[in-house]
């Protein structure tokens, strides 16, 4: 199977921000003002391929024209770089996970709004053991994973489920590109990874997935995040992006020729084939309809999830040197409630534009 480069959901925050500072780039938000030209950054991942399709097929342009603005949707090959560019103000929005949105732009002081709840991982990420199908057997083992990534978070949640903690294992930082090869060596018995590497490991007779993201549904979210001040000053941007997204969602659903062709184009852009892409979709809970996305954001899941995420982030130093508690960064939810500091709200879940899509008001 051709390599499908999953987004590298890595949190090398301090290093990233240091490099930005050294390069003369400050972590300041895009200048908030009424304007008519916008740039959105996206990177390769099963749930974000629709943005590339929408750009190529003119769907984004169609909705931008409706609101008399211009939107340039730009593919960035490096996921972390795309977030850094957004954080530095080079882009008005970026495709990002909930954890990365909190620990990079929000922790860096850039007020960011989750405009579109696109999907959540529902088996795309997993803990794999060699020669055992019991998670409890991970105790005492070196566990190879991308440190401070969503894989690291998944490991922490897996260990909690069997009354263990990271003290019961040894985390070994390993590149996502090296995970499959590492597992092939005789001295590696445990890894945590995501698709497509997870799919490759599943093919092995001696490998068992003992915990995966379907066991923490809704916790690894894939979002389109935009600068909060930019959105406030330019609601047309929110309407155009949301309208375009749900037109793309409608286009790629089903088994008719047009939908299959849309998914085929996304697969090719991702470097795989239709079967490979659909296998990725099968372990991704896509919110194809706005009503379902709104219902998810109005549920208790985002609050419970973000409480877990912020605790993990604080414990691992991902909220920055100034953070003296998990409350350092305030997180606002769709109902207006805030988790953490109400005076330092920097990450927001906004369902307003998805409600407009649900109600046919775009």
Describe how the helices and strands are arranged.
Layout: H1 13-22, E1 37-42, H2 49-56, H3 59-66, E2 70-75, H4 79-87, E3 93-97, H5 98-106, E4 112-121, E5 125-130, E6 142-145, H6 150-161, E7 170-173, H7 179-184, E8 190-194, H8 197-202, E9 207-212, E10 221-227, H9 228-233, H10 235-252, H11 257-270, H12 274-282, E11 284-286, H13 290-298, H14 301-315, E12 330-332, E13 338-339, E14 345-349, H15 352-358
Parallel strand pairs: 1-2, 1-3, 4-14, 6-7, 12-14
Antiparallel strand pairs: 3-10, 4-10, 4-11, 5-8, 5-9, 12-13
Written overview of the protein:
The chain has 362 residues and is of the alpha/beta class. It is 40% helix and 20% strand. It has 15 helices and 14 strands. It has helices at residues 13-22, 49-56, 59-66, 79-87, 98-106, 150-161, 179-184, 197-202, 228-233, 235-252, 257-270, 274-282, 290-298, 301-315, 352-358; strands at residues 37-42, 70-75, 93-97, 112-121, 125-130, 142-145, 170-173, 190-194, 207-212, 221-227, 284-286, 330-332, 338-339, 345-349. The strands form 3 sheets. Strands 1, 2, 3, 4, 10, 11, 12, 13 and 14 form a 9-stranded mixed beta sheet that branches. Strand 12 and strand 13 (338-339) form a beta hairpin. Helix 11 (257-270) crosses helix 12 (274-282). It is globular, with a radius of gyration of 20 Å. The model is unreliable at 1-30 (pLDDT under 50).
Key features of this structure:
362 residues, alpha/beta, globular, disordered N terminus
Give the low-confidence spans.
1-30
The tally of strands reads: 14
**Portion of residues in helices?**
40-55%
Strand content: 15-25%
- Annotation field: number of helices: 15
**Mean of residue pLDDT?**
90
> Structural class given helices, strands, pairing?
alpha/beta
How far apart lie the N and C ends? 40 Å
Rg result: 20 Å
Order of helices and strands: HEHHEHEHEEEHEHEHEEHHHHEHHEEEH
General shape: globular
Largest sheet: 9 strands, mixed
